[in-house]
Amino acid sequence: MLSISISGVERVAPRGRKYVKIYLLLIISCTEKLQTLNYISFLSFHPKYIQNFINQTWMQRYQTNISQGGLTLLWSTIVSMFTLGGLIGASVGGTLSVKLGRRGTLLANNAFSLTAALLMGLSSTVGSFELLVIGRLLSGMNAGIALCVQPLYLGEIAPTALRGAMGMGTSVFITGGILTGQVMGLKEILGKEEYWPILLSTTCIPAFLQLLILPWFPESPRYLLIDKGDEEGCKKALRQLHGLADSGDALEDIEKEKNNLVGFQAKKPWELFSDRSLRWQLLTIILLNIAQQLNGINAIYFYADYVFRQSGIPMDKIPYATVGTGACECITALTCGMLIECLGRKVLIMGGYVLMSICCVFFTLTLTFQDYSPVFPYLSMVCIFAFILSFGLGPGGVTNILTTELFTQNARPAAFMIAGSVNWLSFFLISMVFPFIVTGLQQYCFLVFLAVCSLVVTYIFFVVPETKNKTFVEIQNEFQSSKRNKFCSSDGAGTILLSTSI
């Protein structure tokens, strides 16, 4: 049935865009959960389960209990391995996407997920917490590669008019993965102590699904024509993705981009830093990816448990309230996906950061006066959900879309490597520094996040152009023609890359 539907795209041209949407749902549902399902399910049950397993294993090996310091170190190592793996994956994802292709990289990436699921699922049976460490590392590598290559793939296969909506699919299914992990971590499902190995091994499910579904779909047409020079393969992929009626326009767009890149090889990450024509695009994605982790969203989730307890929610009911926050973010991402082609990227990401800034102010006030009235804990809950809604509305999804749109084919993989590395490093930084910020500033820590959000709004307003309904070359031309890039000579010298008229 699947093969009939896909091949039907070539015969029924008017339905081409419908099948693009089907393609989006199939592919994203099998990729982004590889990262979120494992990470959230791992943290959704109480850490004492893993710590008990470590202590029991240590006792069996050495006939003594592990010291508290040693236990904390091992637990921290297991948790942090995911971040380290993510950084490694993001660092190699762009290179793999050039060597193996976008689809080929996503398929090969499942090996990390399957191996990680196997190791973590067997760790309890064989009595080895070392398998957890290795499994978490491999799981993080899988996530880092997926978050680098998957938005790149979707951005390249999407029609210009649907590129934003398809790009938002990354955010939609990340939040869907978070919500799935939270639900699966409930005690009624897999949240009991004896089930934690099964819970961690469930990441094999989306990996198997992707291995079954993804081979039915083509490689990125842009990659086939521009990187590999395979014109026939590109035409076939376009017919399969867009239908006969729309494939001609898409091919013309790709050919124009190819003509602009004649003589240019795929760039390495360090080459982007030395390319003055890309300095504002590069600065933009670096700042947006830093802000995505440092804007306070992690702090909100940290404080959620405290606020729920202050509001009188029983301890055994707090996990259900936490599921509500995941559902809230998922719904907002869906809403953003429906609005992005109407309102545009700039409006959504700016609006999201503006609303987050306002929430930071009110959340600081409600936490400060938490004990003055029973009303304030409930106002704090409102601020939590409002902050999560604001994050999902723009910063959570639009950031990846801009990383796709601000670069042309030869620079895009390297840009994703830089963006992914910056994002994972920022994630690691905030996880290390945040406890000290909370200890030192307490509820006033949100004034720091207020400053971050406000600065990002200012930067986006003055620097980042609207990219809605523009081709990749048009976006590049807009950056090149701006006053910020006066290094280009007035007679056009130095603009060989963008010389072809649109």
Report, as a whole number of angstroms, the end-to-end distance. 40 Å
CATH class of the largest domain: Mainly Alpha
Rg for CA atoms: 23 Å
Task: State the CATH superfamily name of the largest domain.
Answer: MFS general substrate transporter like domains
Enumerate how many helices there are, as a single number.
23
| Average pLDDT score | 80
Oligomer: single chain
Number of separate domains: 2
How much helical structure, as a percent, in the residues?
over 70%
CATH topology of the largest domain: Growth Hormone, Chain: A
> What ranges have pLDDT less than 50 throughout 5 or more consecutive residues?
1-16, 28-36, 483-502
Question: Care to count the β-strands?
Answer: 0
Strand fraction band?
under 5%
Order of helices and strands: HHHHHHHHHHHHHHHHHHHHHHH
Shape: globular
Please identify, by name, the CATH architecture of the largest domain: Up-down Bundle
The secondary-structure class comes to mainly alpha
Subcellular location: Membrane
Family: Belongs to the major facilitator superfamily. Sugar transporter (TC 2.A.1.1) family.
GO molecular function: D-glucose transmembrane transporter activity; fructose transmembrane transporter activity
Protein name: Solute carrier family 2 member 11b
